[in-house]
Amino acid sequence: MDEQAQKTIDERVAKDKESLLEEIRQNSIIELACKKTGIGRTTFYRWRKEDFNFAVKVSEAIEQGRSVITDMVLSQFIKKIQEGYFPALKSWMDHHDDYFISKSTDAYQKQDETPELPKELIEEIDNLSRMNFENDCKRYITDHPEILKEIAPQ
After folding, report:
1. How many domains would you assign to the chain?
2. What does the mean pLDDT of the chain come to?
3. Which domain holds residue 13?
C-alpha cells in the first residue's frame, strides 16, 4: 500500500475514533455510540485494545457521558421534589441530611429485629411513619429555610 493510501486510511480511522468518542461523551453507552457512528463493536474493542491513548480517551469519555446522564436524572429528580412527590422528597432527605439519614438507618436496623406482623398493621405503621416523616420534613424546612433555596432556586 502506498503512503498516500495509508495516510487516507489513518485520517479516516482518526476521524471515526473522534466521532465515536463524541457519542460516548453524550451517553457513555458503547453499543449505542457504535450504532450511531456505524462503527462495529468489534472494531471499537480492537481499537481500544491496540491504542492505549484511545483507551484512555474512551475512559474519560465514559465518565463525561455518565456525568451528562447524572445531570439529566438529577434534573428530573429535583423536578419531582418541587412537585412534592413524596418518594423523591424522602429519598433526598434519606441521602443528604444527617438527621434523616440516622433515622432511616435506625429504622432499617430495627426492621431486622422485628418479627412478622399482619399486613394491615404494617400498612398502618407505614401510613403513620409517612405522616411522621412529612411532619419531620415540615419541621426541618421551618428550622432550615435555606434548604428550599438549594432544591428550588428562584
Report:
1. 2
2. 77
3. 3-69
